[in-house]
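Workshop exercise sheet. Pairs work together: one partner reads the sequence aloud, the other fills in the structure field after running the prediction. Swap roles for the next sheet.
Pair: D.N. / O.F.
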Amino acid sequence: MKFGYMRVSTIDQNLDRQKKQLEEFGCERIFFEKLTGMKRNRPELNKMLEYLRPKDTVVVTDLTRLSRSTKDLIEIADLISQKGANLKSLKESWLDTTTAHGKMLFTIFAGIAQFERDLTSERTKEGILAARKRGKHPGRPKADEEKIDYALYLIGHGMSQTDAAAKAGISRMTLYRNMKRK
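Structure field:
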């Protein structure tokens, strides 16, 4: 079965062009959303993924309709693959996992994306190590102990935790974290 998936980012945008292309391609069921592609939790996308069976094909007019990030695209494509289904983009003709050529190209692109994520992770770790060598301590600065003690004093005298945190000038989470330690 061919499932179409179409998406626009705002309620004001029109789905007609995508719908026409998907119908002309022979999609038997079309799922659509008017949500940003940056959100991974999209109800209609999730519903479509649940319906997928082996040999089904998910068809999109172009990849930006399915995802706005490489990482998310690869995760979605992996979910489709785990169901034994295929993915096809009408605009990006290289993406057609129903063919050996398309599977190979997608695997290459997925590998490049993973390589990019790994490089970013390595650079981040190197940057943190270099900062530590310079005497810097990356990350969130420690909370002012005097402010925490003041908030605890206020709580001890009947003030609510929320009000005490606000009056002491610290966040509630900082207060909660430090209450557990003391």
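Discussion prompt: The mean pLDDT is 88. What would you look at next?
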